[in-house]
Design goal:
Elements (H helix, E strand, L loop, with lengths): L1 H11 L15 E3 L9 H14 L8 H15 L6 E4 L1 H13 L4 E6 L3 H9 L3 E6 L9 H8 L4 E5 L11 H10 L4 E5 L20 E6 L12 E4 L2 H11 L7 H12 L1 H23 L4 E3 L6 E6 L1 H13 L2 E9 L2 E8 L3 H19 L1
Parallel strand pairs: 1-11, 3-4, 3-5, 5-6, 6-7
Antiparallel strand pairs: 2-8, 7-8, 9-10, 10-12, 11-12
Helix pairs in contact: 2-9, 3-9, 4-5, 10-12, 11-12
């Protein structure tokens, strides 16, 4: 078994995605970009109806899967043969990377979704990174296209995690049309909070795959339902050969379908989140020592000096507010990412930040 021990030793040295801790439920959780604005009654009603519908003694029925695809078709305005659903977009990304084969080059923008980078390392893909411009988190086009042309795969998270911004649509379309011999992976986990989606482009361009999820805007993080939108051939092979026979459980299928039926209710919540997002941005913009970036997602990205960062960490801990503490990343000092929560949650976060600001003025 030395071969296995050696392999495990190699894997243990790889970076991995660190899940936020819930601190025993004692903290306000603004660290996972969940839709906390969505009334819990919304999901409870859906769950209650789903439980009445299903019998968990049986494997998931085909009719439940078919209904989910009909609802996704209606929601996206895209035919079902362009869509593949699975157990979260994370699983779909992982499965897709697993068939590409080791040694392929992947161009990414940094900072970006760390899970994707970790899975590339796991599957032996070679990462080539292009840093975003520090002043506004936009893409340096000359550097990006130079590396992208030398790679087989391009991955772009838009809106980007953790910076929160959606990239210029014209630039994205230029990338798709000028790199048609590359596989372009576009992660749109937060696109409901942004201005546009490229999902419909898969009907015209075979080189793009768009990842989407119901974990964020639809408030179904615990149900683990995601999907990809891609060319018909890739979707057909993915659903029939690459994916597990029962990739989604019966309850998840029913819950996801019924949430999509009530998508208008979700859209109203999204508008409320956008309004709260702007309020948080305006308040943080007035505080010296903090640089807050415009966001097209349901979170905001902040950068501050090292001393300020440490004081913020301590104060948020005292206030029992949990955010994603990123520290120093890509030459940026004292970074953190905060989810847009309910008005009360956001006020608690801002109060903690203002206490640090007032202390620094003394």
């Amino acid at each position: 078994m030395k071969w296995l021990s050696g392999r495990l030793e190699h894997l243990s040295r790889l970076d991995y995605y660190s899940k936020p801790t819930d601190n025993g439920g004692r903290y306000v959780r603004l660290d996972s970009n969940e839709n906390l604005m969505l009334d819990r009654k919304f999901t409870l009603e859906i769950i209650a109806k789903a439980i009445k519908d299903v019998d968990l003694r049986f494997y998931p029925k085909q009719e439940y899967e078919d209904f989910l695809y009909r609802q996704l078709k209606k929601y996206l305005g895209i035919e079902e043969n362009y869509i593949a659903a699975g157990s979260g977009s994370d699983q779909i990304i992982d499965l897709l990377l697993s068939i590409i084969g080791p040694g392929k080059r992947v161009t990414v923008l940094t900072p970006t979704f760390s899970y994707f980078l970790n899975r590339c390392e796991l599957h032996g893909l070679k990462l080539e990174s292009v840093p975003l411009r520090r002043e506004n988190n936009t893409i340096c086009e000359s550097d990006f296209f130079k590396l992208a042309k030398q790679s087989e795969i391009v991955y772009i998270c838009s809106p980007n995690n953790p910076t929160g911004n959606q990239f210029d649509k014209e630039l994205m379309m230029d990338m798709i049309t000028s790199l048609q011999n590359k596989l372009i992976l576009i992660d749109e986990a937060y696109v409901e909070f942004a201005d546009y989606s490229l999902a419909s482009s898969v009907t015209k361009y075979e080189n793009i795959v768009v990842f989407r999820t119901l974990s964020k805007a639809f408030g179904l993080a615990g149900a683990r339902v995601g999907y990809m939108v891609a060319n018909e051939n890739l979707v057909r092979v993915f659903r029939s050969r690459i994916q597990l026979p029962y990739s989604l459980g019966t309850l998840s299928l029913r819950i996801a379908s019924m949430a999509l039926v009530r998508s208008n209710q979700v859209r109203k919540t999204i508008e409320r989140i956008k309004r709260e997002r702007e309020k948080i941005f305006e308040n943080l913009s007035k505080i010296n020592g903090i640089k807050v970036f415009k966001s097209d997602s349901n979170f905001l990205f902040l950068e501050c000096c090292e001393l300020y960062y440490q004081n913020i960490v301590k104060q948020l801990h005292r206030a029992r507010v949990s955010v994603r503490m990123l520290g120093n990343i890509d030459g940026r000092a004292g970074c953190l990412r905060v989810t847009v929560g309910t008005r009360e949650m956001n006020a608690r976060f801002l109060k903690a930040i203002e206490i640090v600001s007032d202390h620094n003025k003394i």
